[in-house]
Structures are given as C-alpha cells and as structure tokens.
Design brief:
- The chain contains 5 helices and no strands.
- By secondary structure, it is mostly helical.
- It has one domain.
- Helix 1 crosses helix 3 and helix 3 packs antiparallel against helix 4.
- The chain starts with 12 loop residues before the first helix and ends in a 7-residue tail after the last helix.
- The model has no long low-confidence stretch (mean pLDDT 80).
Length: 90
C-alpha cells in the first residue's frame, strides 16, 4: 500500500508514529509482524487518509485503532506505566 498526500484530519503525534512505522517497514512489514497486526496497521493508515464524512466518528475509530495497535505491538506500549504503576493497580 502506497501513501500519497497528507491525512485529511488533524492527527495526534501517536497516530503519526504508527503511520511512520508503516512507512518505514514498507513491503518488509510481512517479515516483522503477524498478518493480523499488519492488517490492523493497514486499516489504521487507510482510515487516517480517508476523506472524513463524520470527523468525530473517524477520530473515535482512529483512537480505537491506536489502542488495538498498542496491545498488538508490544514495543509501542507505555513503558513508564509498566515501571511505575499507579497506586490503584498495585
């Protein structure tokens, strides 16, 4: 999948990080991650570049994809939270 242009909606830096990850992996992405994670990443990038019909719904879906990607790609989880958990989680 090739990416042309810029996202049609204003994205957070976290979303840009996943788009950059997708761009850097390129065609070799199949070698580095499982197919379901790769499909999740492709769908995330696709929705970021779609023309927004309902921007609030699109942003909610982007946030949902970010959470799913955080779970499926362990290198992008919040390391500081794992090292110093909140008082409630102890």
């Amino acid at each position: 999948m090739q990416i042309t242009g810029k996202p049609k909606i204003k994205l957070r830096s976290e979303a840009h990080d996943y788009i950059n990850l997708f761009l850097l992996l390129g065609e070799r992405a199949e070698n580095f991650m499982p197919n379901d994670t790769l499909n999740l990443l492709k769908n995330f990038v696709r929705i970021c570049y779609e023309e927004p019909i309902d921007p609030s719904k699109q942003l909610a879906e982007i946030d949902k994809y970010i959470l799913e990607l955080k779970e499926s790609i362990p290198g992008y989880t919040d390391v500081s939270l794992m090292i110093f958990p909140h008082e409630d989680s102890k």
